[in-house]
Design a protein that fits this description.
Oligomer: single chain
CATH class of the domain at 140-336: Alpha Beta
CATH architecture of the domain at 140-336: 3-Layer(aba) Sandwich
Strand content: 5-15%
Order of helices and strands: HHEEHHEEEHEEHHHHHEHEHEEHHHH
Number of helices: 16
Length: about 475
Amino acid sequence: DEPTNHLDLDAILWLEDWLNAYTGTLILISHDRDFLDAITNRILHIENQELTLYSGNYSTFETTRAERLAQQQQAYEKQLETRAHIQKYIDRFKAQATKARQAQSRIKQLERMQLLAPAHVDTPFTFSFREPTKMSSPLLTLEQADIGYGDKLIATNINIQITPTSRIGLLGMNGAGKSTLIKSLVGDLPLLAGQRKASELLNIGYFAQHQMDSLDESASPMLQLARIADKKISEATLRAFLGSFGFSGERMDTPCESFSGGERARLALALIVWLRPNVLILDEPTNHLDLDMRHALTMALQDYEGAVVLVSHERQLIASVCDDLILVHAGKSTEFEGDLHDYANWLRQARLEMIKQGGIVAPIVSKVSTQKTIVSKVDKEAQRKLAAQRREQTRPIRKNIEKCESLLAKHQPRLLDIESLLGDAGLYDAARKDELMKLMNEQTEIKNQVSEAEEQMLELMMELEELESSFENE
């Protein structure tokens, strides 16, 4: 149940590797879509008091569900037209003796017709950052900075410059000093040496766990927003703003003491957004946020016109928002010239080195310090050949998985079409009995084929996972 909460990216990648090698059954709840994509092969979706099982990982689920909802809505609208047509006939002829029998037949058709539900999608959160306050460049600089707590030195000689266009993601193992660096940038933690230079126009929006903890427990979201808003702003404007963060009318006026972690996170974020910061410094902002809110935050940050410094275990958030990556490691901060895939590989290699060296990762540190992309010591040509060999070994399994996926993609829309056709009241007339039986037989046959394909695909996925796990252990 939410196993990635409060884990950094290093720990999440380790957990992914461990779970992918695990041979038992796994049932998990998570708001981390990258984690779900890496681990799961089925998604059980709870919506409107119903459970729906989807094949594939989370990304596949999103696509399949969107298609299913579109088809469901079409079927629902078609049934509404059919019912309206039958009702019109009933209303017109039920009072006429010559047509009364036919009208009664139509009434029975309506009663037998199973009502289809309209497609329902939970209203997603959407919000946008207000235009930042006036900016100058640079907004914030650390020069030859040593950071830490008292006499405990965490990292030395840090040089970072934040301009209005900066989009920086901070990477590093747990305890490397990412949060310490964040606090030093914000100014909450004095430097042990060096300089912190802040523009007169600097307006930081800082989100971390303690922002949630420092919310006024006795005050409602409306009251807390009103305290920082201009007195000229109307109550309707404030309520509309809070509504974009998922607060209903009742919750807007409820004291925070009863709020969940997710509600606290949304309120803390809303208060930051209201103040129009020109630099956002975010330390694990997605903890406690559900998938809809995480998506809304990602979209809002992409459109944000100020600078961003981000620490997050959410890979999609980092990849979508950050242009530059800085690695905090072994007491230094250096530009990481790879992407998140390279960083994941580096972390795995670093763990191996730590085991070999008894906790020392000196060979890797030397490469970081020269600001080169960190890669394995294995020759690149040998790596390519090995990767090609492994692709060849897994190709037959992947092809069979693709066949199963194609079969499912072909049959699922037809099943929805049949369900729509079975909703036609006229189909149950005695004259159309053969047509009805043909449809029902086809439905049964397709359902059996879908079930077989799903079972086969599950077995193939497990076979593929075992083979790929054996590669990791070589």
